[in-house]
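Q&A log
Question type: sequence-to-structure
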Amino acid sequence: MSELNLFLFVTNICVAVLCGALLPIVPFLTRQSFLFGVKVPPEAQKTDEAKALKRNYIAITAVGGAIALAALIWQYVAAPDYTIFTAMYFPFAIIAIQLAALAPSHRRALELKSRLGWNVAEITFADTKTSFTRGNLSAMPRFWYIISLLLVFASFAIALARYPALPDLVPTHWGFDMAPNAWRDKSLGVVLSAPIFNAVMVAFMCLTGILIEKAKLPNDHKEPARSFAQHKKYRRLMGHGMGFLTVALAALFLILSLQTVYVGFAAPFWLVLALGVVPCIPLCAVAIRAGQGGTLLKVVPAEEPAAGSGDMARDNAMSDDKLWALGLLYHNPDDPAYFVGNRFGGNIGFNYSRLPVKIGAAIFILSMVATYVWLTSLFAAML
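Response status: OK
Response body:
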């Protein structure tokens, strides 16, 4: 148990350091036409008020990150057996820190926009489809997901083929030396747990890839062709990054499945760790290099076919601050889009006015709550 605690502690520290480095720079990666989720003229970013707002955000996230890091260390020193709970709930602390910095910044940005007259001029559209840019699923790097599905199929096939020959107890957990240190009674549920989780993970990652391609990203209406080219490159880079991560995680769970069904088989710990950590590095690099929707990418503009007037009207509607909560939650019943680019950071979000989105969000929240309640009670019983 001490080895697991140490591993989780190191993981928590790595997450805290990474988030502590990324959170303060999010405003500088966000599109220049948005100030903490509020639509503003790009030149407003250069004002003293906007700069002061960013400094305040940086201070809050930096102090919050330092407190979170100190809390992680204190928890491990004072109660190392509870590190697994910290690993489960620590991501919520990171979210809370960002919201604590974003909420007052968003409110202040709205006040400044009203007081200083940061009104956005009426949008004019070039005769291109860049005014309503969405990706094409045919451009999605599907080969990554095909490879991942083959790995999932292999994990199911091997587990089912090996099941009759397995002993009554099968390993379900391994230490740093990759030697088994926990076993459970043989059952299909236990033996297929890694393949099932693998299949769910690949499905989720594939949906994320589709979301990246189909999300409606806001564009620069002064240079629509350049904006379209940036979005296209951004989707390509993110698509390959997500695909690479999917293959790596599918391979990781295949290894875990093999260790369950083949007694004595043990992959080196460095390989398991690398499969979980290394693929995240390109994604972070793309997020920093590209900025929100690819606004920081250098591209060669390319003109596109004409857009429909309905697309332009929907794009115009997205500029209304009243339709956004903190620049993260979009609610517009008149917009048929399901996926949209958020106004803060590089996240892809949803149009929460759509019924399927509401149902999906409710199912996700209920599933998360049920999973956390189950895991919390399970781990508490193990103490």
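Response note: The radius of gyration is 23 Å.
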